[in-house]
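can u pls check wat happens w/ tetrahydrodeoxyuridine
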Amino acid sequence: MPLVKCLSFDITIYDSLEELNESDRSLMMQSIGARENAYAPYSRFNVGAAVLLENGKVVIGNNQENASYPSGLCAERVAVFYAGAQFPGVKIKTIAITAASKNYEVATPAAPCGNCRQAILEYEFKQKESIKLLLMGEVGKIIQCNSVADILPLGFNRTFLK
Ligand code: THU
C-alpha cells in the first residue's frame, strides 16, 4: 500500500507592524525603504528585501527589471547574492520581504517566487541554520515562516550531488 503523508508547517500571522518585535519591525521598515527604490518600470510591482546577518549588518535588495524581461532579477536574490558576495561565511538570520504595486494596493503578504525560494534554500543548507522569512504587502497582515525549506517542500539541495 502506498503511504500518504501530510506535510505541514507552522506560520505566525501578525495583524500589523506594531506586533513585530523591534528587530523584525526595523528589518521590515528597511525592506519597505528598499522597495521604494525598486527599478520596476515594466511590472510596476516593487519588491524590497532586507537581509539580517548574524553580525548585525543588514543588506538590502530590490527588483531590477530589464527591457529584456528575463534579464531582470527579483529583490530577494539581489539581496541574498549581495550578502553572499559581501559577507561570505556570515549566516543569514532573517529576510523581510515586502511588495507594493503602482496599479493597486497590495494587501496580500509578498510571496517569494520559486526561484527565490530555491536561492534562499541554498544558503540555509550552506549555513546549516534556518532562515526566518517575514512577508508583507503594502497593508494587511504579515506572515512569518520559520524556514524557507517549509515553503519549498521536497526541494532540491546539495545532498543530491555526490
Ligand atoms: N518579484 C520579486 O522581486 N520577487 C518575487 O519573489 C516575485 C516577483 C519581482 C520580479 C519582477 O520585477 C516583478 O516582481 C513582477 O514579477
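The two ends are 31 Å apart (CA to CA).
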